[in-house]
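Encode chain A's predicted structure.
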Amino acid sequence: MRHHLLGTAGQIGKSIHRAPYFRRLHWKGLKTRETDPSASFESFGQLDRCKQVQPRSEPKLGDMETGLEPVTKRISFEKDVACFGKAIVKREIRIVKAGRDRLTFWSPENFGLFVFHHELSYLPDARHFQGESTGIVGQVDVTVMGAGVFGLSVAWACIGKGARVRIIDPNGVGNGASGGILGALAPHVPENWNSKKQFQLECLFEADAFWGAVEQGSGQDTGFGRTGRLQPVLDAHALDLARQRARNAETLWQGRATWRLIPAEDAGPWAPVSPTGWLIEDGLSARIHPRRATRALAAACAANGSSVEAGGTTQGAVVWATGYLGLRDMSSMLGKTVGTGIKGQAALLDHGTTDSPQLFADGIHIVPHADGTTAVGSTSERVFDAPETTDFQIDDLIARAVELVPALRDANVVERWAQVRPRAKSRAPMLGAWPGRPGHFVANGGFKIGFGMVPGVARVMADLICDGVDRIPPEFRVDASL
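Encoded structure for chain A:
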């Protein structure tokens, strides 16, 4: 691999810089008085600061090789950049940022730092570049396309790692599925455990801290609450299963949450109808107000210098979190279906139970919110004419909810909502690098569990983009949907 750099640089002074991509430059042909003449330095760390280099030959800017470095590593003269004590290595170069369109180079000279921007064109092998310099421009480390909950949460996590983030969405904040009203954050049944279920469990454990930080950073309420969930037990077989799952939860949930059976009468008037007189109560489920949470995320990002823009150019790493339309576009580019859109309708009732547990019965989620409303949803429609229209299907859902929970009988409908949710082919969120597009990443396919997965999605995507560390479980990788 070689980088060919043309042009000069201007001094910008000492600084510490963070960026999402790092590549280490290996100088070839340098030797110190203490090393073998044929030695090649594998990293700057092998050179002691201020060690002199013999002036056998001055290194040329084109004579460099690269290796991957952790992203968002701090680069500073005092800590990481070797000083050779004499002017014979003035043009020592270190790549600090490699984006889709440019590289940023830092060079120590006279105890200062210099920066180059290098326009790039990718060859078939993404590790090779060629181009010519363009001068100093404003820098963005990560561009996030899409201001839904996945895009904003990834942006928020990257900001937390010191990256400079641009967020672009021509439709504004939460204008798609993330602007919903349901907000049921619920775990998988504690049985047949796998890495997918474990990852979701960790996400739910992280939710309090994640959404608490968003509220603190934005000054806005997200509607998050660890209120638990109740489910009716339909028959004797379901009762036996529930008892076994309660035992499983003691181990699988690590003692941090409970899954237990309680008499329906203990839940009071909020209890759903249960033929056996028993309810499953879990303390892990939580609720959030999707629309408010998405807006709070946008406000937290804006408070840290990353407001949502209607348009702009992409720089640095590019994260595509563009919902079901993004899955459609990706399918077209790859020549195969990687996901689709499933329409959902939900309703908001004026029934005020605030901190009561959410209910799940007959496939319907009933979620009391902190503002005195209760959400009911949602439909799953593979075939639909219009993404944002509601029809008889949500009316039928409301009627079924009232049969299951008589306490809702006198509640009025204050809002009907519909949107298309992105579902990846694997049925799990699609996370990771975009195949065949170096420097591009995908965070999509949240479908019904997106908000519950947000803390983990943000964490593993920021680790990958900013640190070069891939902790994405196999079931969530892009390859799982190809």
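The chain has seven helices and 24 strands.
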